[in-house]
Design brief:
D-Maltodextrin-Binding Protein, domain 2; nine-stranded mixed sheet; alpha/beta; globular; about 25% strand
């Protein structure tokens, strides 16, 4: 066989391989997941492992807050909405108006943990003390047994499911006072508190790290083992547009599987449900 012929065959083979490769990418199914930064570590890790099993499904994951995730379900711009709170009645009404019927799947349990700088020698605060701090009624650490220093209050923004659970359980419906510094994610709160020895914030359990000091609440510590007894805990959800089918059903089943997604829930620091 002539060299030119062999070269042509090889060239054709390379072109065909590239065509097949690009065709596979082009025809890969796409699954979109948006919402809660609290649920984000679960969704990201689950997506990575899921795509190893189903390489023909491309999963994209982004944060933005529970409210934004549910809004994306309502307007049809995502397949799955991550949320660290349950859907509101007004959101259900908006969904129905748009012909969308959100279905909730509880995927994990979480503790919302008040955190301070490691140099702060305060170890425990009551729900009442936390409420007064976040209302702006307690402004100095000395009032709760700490040093004579002004408290820097750090909170989540109102689109956050974590904020809404904190508002419900800790604040009992009262609003966080205007002087609080608002952050858009758990990671941003953790970073802000780690850099400020006067600060207090609150984050999901999996965002705890050595640069933060977790406080007990009414004597109860936030942990995987103590998630039921801990006063500020909640379930984490994934919502689908109607009863899931196809790629969406495959992903939800993966997340709920005791030896797959629920193992990931434990690995990233949350409490598995199954």
């Amino acid at each position: 066989m002539k060299k030119k012929t062999i070269g042509a065959i090889l060239k054709t083979g390379v072109i065909l391989a590239l065509v097949v490769c690009f065709a596979t990418v082009a025809w890969a199914e796409k699954l979109s997941i948006k919402g809660s930064t609290t649920v984000l570590p679960i969704a990201q890790k689950a997506a990575e492992e899921f795509m190893k099993i189903y390489p023909d499904i491309n999963v994209s994951v982004s944060g933005g807050g529970s409210g934004n995730g549910i809004k994306a379900i309502i307007d049809g711009t995502t397949d799955i909405a991550d949320s660290s709170r349950f859907i509101k009645q007004k959101e259900v009404a908006m969904s129905v108006e748009n012909g969308v019927y959100p279905v909730p799947f509880a995927v994990a349990r979480d503790c919302i943990v008040p955190v301070v700088h490691p140099s702060n020698h305060i170890d425990d605060l009551s729900l009442k003390q936390l409420r007064k701090i976040y209302q702006g009624k307690i402004r100095n650490w000395e009032a709760v047994g700490g040093p004579d220093l002004e408290i820097v209050v750090i909170s989540r923004d109102t689109s956050s499911g974590t904020y809404e659970v904190w508002e419900d359980i800790v604040m009992e419906g009262a609003r966080v006072y205007p002087g609080a510094l608002l952050q858009a994610s758990n990671g941003a709160v953790a970073q802000a508190v780690a850099k400020n020895k006067y600060a207090i914030g609150y984050i999901g359990l999996s965002y705890l790290n050595k640069e933060l000091k977790a406080l007990t609440v009414d004597g109860e510590a936030a942990s995987i083992e103590n998630a039921i007894a801990y006063p500020v805990s909640r379930e984490l959800f994934m919502f689908t547009k109607g009863w899931p089918t196809g790629k969406t059903m495959k992903f939800i089943n993966y997340v709920l599987h005791p030896n797959k997604g629920q193992k990931i829930v434990s690995e990233v620091g949350y409490v598995p449900l199954y």
